[in-house]
Amino acid sequence: MRSAELTLTLLSPYHASITSKGTYHQSGLKIRYEPAGSEEIDLYDLKQMEEIRLFPADRIYFKTRLGPARILKAVREGWMPPPPPLTEKRTLLREGPIKEKDARLYFITLEEKGKKWYSLRWVSADEAEIPLQVIYPASDFETVIADYDSLRTEPSDPARFEPPPDFMSVNPY
Question: Which superfamily, per CATH, for 2-169?
Answer without folding.
Answer: Lipoprotein localisation LolA/LolB/LppX (2.50.20.10)
